[in-house]
C-alpha cells in the first residue's frame, strides 16, 4: 500500500541500460572538462582553511570601489591579495568585501601584520586618514577611553577613569551594533548619550573613515596543509567503509560499482568547483561527505530492489531486471531528490556569500549523485555481468543460500 501511494508513475518502462553509453559519454565529458580546468588552474582553489593565510572582512558605508582597492593593495606591495564582493539576495546592500592574503605566517603577530597592512593600504588608497588622529571606526573601547581621559571633556577629575571607560564601551557598542561598525559622523554619537563636549573631544583625537574591518581570520600554512591531508583521509575512510558494507550486504561488484559512482560524483563536483572558481573549505568538505552518503543511499535503494527482483524474475535477462528496478524506484527517487534539491537550491540562492560554496556543493551533489545511481553504478554492474557472459540474472549474496533452503 505504501508503495502504491507513492508511485506517481504508473507502468514506467524506460530502457535505462540501453542508454548507458550516453550516460558514460556525459560523465566522461564532465570529468575531462573538470580535469582540464583543474590542470589550467593548477589544482583546486583552496580556501584559507587549507592553504593558510588571512581573511579580512571590510565593510564600507557606500558601495566599495573594488578596482580602486585592488590597485591600492598592489601599490602598497600586497600582490597576493584577492578581493571578493559580498552580496546576495538576503543582504544586497551589505557593502562588504573579503580581502584574502595567502600564507602570511602564523600566530597573532601575523594576524596583526595582515590587518595592519590592509588598513594602511586602504587609508593610503582612499585618503581617509588625518595626520595625528586615529580612525574611530578602527578604535577599540580602550583607545576611546584613553582619549577621553586625556581630554576630560566632562571635567571629572579623579573619577574620570571609570566614567570614561563605561562611556567608551557605550559609544563603541553604538557604532558596532547600530551603525554596523561604521560611523560616518560624530554627531550621530549624540544618540548614544555623548554630549557636545565629548563629541568635540573625540573630533580632536579621531576621524571617521568610510570603512571598517569587521572580522579577521588567520590559518597558518602548516595547519592548512594538515587539514587538507585529514580531509582526504576522512573521505577515503568513508568510501572504504561503504565499500565493505555493500560488499557484505550484496556482492563485491556492487560495492565496487557504488564506490566508483561516488568517486565519479566527487570528481565531477571538484571539477565544477574549479570551473566556477568556488573555493574549497572545511564546510565544503562537509558538503562532499554529505554528498557521498546521499549518493550511496540512493544507490543502495536501487541495488536492494534489484536483489528483490532477482528472486521474482529468475529467467529474465539481468539488464531487464535492472531496468525494472530503476523504474520501480523512480517515484521514490524523484520525491526525495526533488524535495532535497529544492531545499538546497533555496540555500544556494538566498544563503549568502558565506554559504555559497557549501550550498553549491550540495546542489551539484544532489543532481550528480542521483544521476550516478542509475546512470553509472547500475550500468557498471550490468557491464560486469555481460563481461562474464551471463545472459540470466546472477543472484546477489544471500540469494543462492535462500534457494538452497527452499529446496531443502
The low-confidence parts are: 1-5, 391-408
Mean pLDDT: 81
Q: What overall geometry do the principal axes of the alpha carbons give? A: elongated
For the largest beta-sheet, the strand count, sense and barrel status come to: 4 strands, antiparallel
- State the share of residues found in helices, binned by percent: 55-70%
> What's the number of helices?
15
Task: Record the strand order, biggest sheet.
Answer: 2-3-1-6
| Radius of gyration, taken over Cα atoms and rounded to an integer in Å | 30 Å
The first-to-last residue Cα distance is: 32 Å
Q: Count the strands? A: 6
* Secondary structure category: alpha+beta
Please give the oligomerization state of what you see: single chain
SSE sequence, one letter per element = HHHEHEEHEHHHEEHHHHHHH
Task: Tell me the β content.
Answer: 5-15%
Provide a descriptive summary of the structure in words.
This protein is α+β, with helices and mostly antiparallel strands and 408 residues long. 63% of the residues lie in helices and 8% in strands. It has helices at 2-5, 20-40, 48-51, 66-75, 107-126, 141-151, 160-178, 196-205, 221-249, 252-275, 282-312, 318-328, 330-350, 356-387, 399-407; strands spanning 53-60, 81-86, 96-102, 134-135, 206-207, 211-219. The strands form 2 sheets. It has a 4-stranded antiparallel sheet with strand order 2-3-1-6. The chain is elongated. The two termini are 32 Å apart. The relative contact order is 0.13.
